[in-house]
Amino acid sequence: MQIREFIEGATGSLRNAASKLRAKWGEHRGRRLAVIGLAAVIFTGTGATAAWAITTTDDEPRQPTEAAAEATEKSEEQAVEDVAAEEPSEETSEEPTEEATTEEAEETEEPEEDPGPVVPDPVDGLSSEQMETAAIVIETGKEMGFDSNGWAVALATGMQESQLKNIDYGHHDSVGVFQQRPSMGWGTVEELMDVSTSASKFYGTLEQISGWENMSIAQAAQAVQVSAYPDAYAQWESLAWNIIDAYEAAN
């Protein structure tokens, strides 16, 4: 009976001491000290061991169970920090702004293709293909700074040489709308078979002829082509002007 009363008294003293320790060092550490002290009383039955457990301070080496518990707490805290670091922030998860989306669309948007000149309706029995070739010849002259007088010279020449058709055959090695010869320095076959390139070579030579503006259409055409039939170009003068009128009306 006395031993039991002694143990109960020691246990009460232990609880009071543990309560004070919790207030000083915190609830978590006070709970561990109380458990250690109570275990000492139960297993030894003496107050000396209980007193040792109660008076043990944080300056003494920690028990393995304390170190393991603290390591577990730190591991849990580190795991929480790692998860937080992996989660995308509000800044990175924001949707792209409308302005950024518009700029990206402008950068990736491909330039529109040039639709080319407006082709007028056929005149004087010409085909749509011939009218398209004539429109390209006129557009090329316009881009190079020539007026309608220069267009008429080019169109009359094209009618005489190829009937305004982009042909890959002719006298000797002549090709294209103006039947220009690669062997005579007009350019490569590939260049001369491009209507716009071929026309630009014709206009480039025409502008080098002094006073061509004051010549007749036939004279100006002959000055460029140096044909064996210089008077043949005159027959196409009226048709050339009809094509020009149709082009200007369409554009």
What topology does this entry show?
Blueprint: H1 2-25, H2 27-44, H3 47-55, H4 64-86, H5 98-108, H6 128-143, H7 148-162, H8 189-192, H9 195-206, H10 217-225, H11 237-250
Please, could you describe this protein's structure?
This protein has 251 residues and is mostly helical. The protein has 2 domains: 2-86, no CATH class; 128-250. The chain contains 11 helices and no strands. The model is unreliable at 33-61 (pLDDT under 50).
What attributes characterize this protein structure?
2 domains; 11 helices; 0% strand
What do the pLDDT scores average to?
A: 76
Radius of gyration: 52 Å
Strand % is under 5%
Q: What is the count of DSSP helices, taking H or I runs of 4+ residues?
A: 11
Quick rundown:
By secondary structure, the chain is mainly α.
